[in-house]
Amino acid sequence: MGKLLYADGNIYMGQHKAFTREGYGKIIYLNGSIYEGGWENDKKARRGRMFDHVSGDVYNGEYLDGKRNGRGRMYYAAIQEIYDGDWSNDRR
After folding, report:
1. Residue 61 to residues 2, 30, 71, 85: CA-CA distances in angstroms?
2. Residue (of 50, 60, 6, 55) closest to 26 by Cα position
3. Which of these, 6, 20, 15, 65, lies nearest to 36 by C-alpha position?
């Protein structure tokens, strides 16, 4: 486990390999958003939880290649609705 501070102000705490996020970790973005979950080759992967500080939206589910993909649940704060289901590459 380690801590990485990026030039853009983002802070990552978790597993990494040669300064590439790999395994399990948490990133706190400069805007206050937070992602905690799996990483592969510096991209979000497997299961994770993303809180978007700007919109208030929360996604909890599967990721592939840095994108929501697979089973997941999204809370849309602005309209106070929840989508629970499949997130294929074409659903964003």
Report:
1. 24, 23, 6, 9
2. 50
3. 15
User: What Cα–Cα distance (Å) separates residue 53 from each residue in 22, 31, 33?
Assistant: 24, 7, 5
Question: Is 2.40.128 the CATH number for 2-87?
Answer: no
Write the CB contacts of 38 (distance below 8 Å, at least 6 apart in sequence): 23, 24, 44, 45, 46, 47, 48, 63
82: nearest Cα among 52, 57, 46: 57
> How do residues 25-83 score in pLDDT, each as one tens digit?
999 999 999 999 999 999 999 999 999 999 999 999 999 999 999 999 999 999 999 99
How far does CA 45 lie from the centroid of its chain?
A: 8
Q: How far is CA 83 from CA 1, 50, 76, in A?
A: 33, 15, 8
